[in-house]
Design brief:
With about 400 residues, the chain is α/β, with parallel strands linked by helices. It has eleven helices and 16 strands. The chain has one domain. A seven-stranded mixed sheet has the order 6-5-4-7-8-11-10, sandwiched between helices. The chain binds zinc ion (ZN).
């Protein structure tokens, strides 16, 4: 097979099967643009997904870390949705109760805008330090005296910060060297008794099962399966205590305790063969789904109907770009006020708030994440709109 890097980043095996290729994937799905002209020039790259025959990991063998550069305009906060807030809150409560996180030190690597760390602090009286290059100082920084933020990528130079709980949510899948990232998490636990890590990533099994093809994005180098996620932590100084699905199966949530003596054992990977069959069939199903959507959008355009997309996150941007919808879809809705007024990279639609729907009066709203359907339905009903809702 060809590709930039064929070696599995989890187990270092070279037995990697290339199973999917996307030629002109948008490099940054969550970088917003202030003008349509700039948005249309957004950079594209090649995705070549490989499956590791030894540990069950999936990754983009053509990933170019140089193409990725995160800055403030990286807007990925999901905290404006009540459904997401409920999820975050119940997760925070679970972690606090399970590990007795009251008046403890919490470190979050890749804290985004800081919402979850602030929640952990508020609910448990904990102190916290959050690291993120895309942190925006005036949005959340003044909300708590117990939490501070460092607007930088977490690296060795912050190794003197130690925590009782090290959090990392929706970060590891972006990292070119997941093993060195996990070793940094291990070092951040120091020698504190009872210290734990919590790590959350998108669940590739959900992508396969639900055919959530819009989740395949350039920003993600890794696509974790339970097999590869568990193996990663068990090989780098941890013992996995819990590995669960979260957010209706969309996430994998792992809790692990540091161990002193690392002893490497040849790990069994039960279910690897059936996983390989599912992964191999995925790209064919992916291609069929894209074709069906292209057909659907052509029919909508032919009928002269107005369609709006709800959700300008990575799924929405991926949907709009994969289907090259610049002509068919004029409106993209998002409840995050920091996204509104910006333009979708690649296809150039302006992002507007739900209230704009009164004027748009769409015939159809395409929902990017089914978990928000009832939340969106309530809004649409309240506004008295008569339109069809369709899940992408
Ligand atoms: Zn592997």
């Amino acid at each position: 097979m060809t590709g930039r890097n064929n070696k599995c980043p989890i187990c270092e095996s070279g037995a990697v099967l290339l199973f999917a290729e996307v030629k002109d994937a948008l490099v940054h799905c969550n970088t917003l643009w202030k003008s349509r002209e700039m948005a249309l020039k957004a950079r594209r790259g090649v995705l070549k997904l490989g499956f590791c025959n030894r540990c069950g990991h999936v990754f983009n063998t053509a990933f170019d870390p140089e193409a990725m550069k995160y800055a403030e305009e990286y807007e990925n906060s999901l905290h404006f949705s009540p459904v997401f807030q409920d999820y975050a809150r119940s997760l925070a409560v679970k972690l606090i109760e399970r590990y007795g996180l009251y008046e403890k030190e919490i470190i979050e690597i890749g804290c985004g805008k800081g919402d979850f760390l602030l929640l952990m602090s508020e609910l448990g009286g904990n102190s916290g330090i959050g690291f993120d290059a895309s942190f925006i100082r005036d949005r959340n920084d003044s909300r708590s005296r117990k939490v501070s933020f460092i607007q930088d990528l977490y690296s060795e130079k912050y190794a003197h910060f130690k925590g009782d709980m090290i959090l990392s949510r929706q970060v590891l899948e972006h990292i070119r060297s997941p093993r060195s990232f996990v070793r940094k998490m291990r070092s951040a636990t120091g020698s504190r008794p009872g210290a734990m890590v919590f790590c959350e990533v998108p669940n590739f099994m959900h992508t396969i099962k639900e055919l959530a093809v819009w989740d395949i994005i350039y920003e993600h180098y890794s696509y974790f399966t339970p097999l590869s996620f568990r193996r990663l932590f068990n090989s780098d100084g941890f013992r996995v205590q819990s590995l669960e699905e979260g957010f209706n199966g969309q996430f994998l949530c792992l809790e692990a305790a540091p161990v002193e003596n690392m002893h490497k054992t040849a790990e069994e990977a039960p279910g690897l063969d059936s996983l390989m069959r599912e992964v191999s069939a995925f790209f064919h199903r992916y291609t069929n789904k894209i074709a069906a959507w292209k057909n659907e959008l052509e029919k909508i355009a032919a009928r002269g109907q107005r369609a709006a997309v709800w959700g300008a996150g990575s799924k929405g941007v991926s949907f709009l770009n994969t289907l090259k919808t610049a002509a068919e879809i004029d409106h993209v809705i998002d409840i995050n006020p920091y996204k509104q007024g910006n333009y979708v990279p690649g296809t150039g639609q302006e992002i507007v708030g739900p209230e704009a729907l009164r004027e748009i009066d769409p015939d159809l709203i395409i929902i990017m994440n089914p978990i928000y359907t009832s939340e969106i339905w309530e809004t649409v009903k309240r506004m008295g709109l008569k339109c069809r809702l369709l899940t992408a």
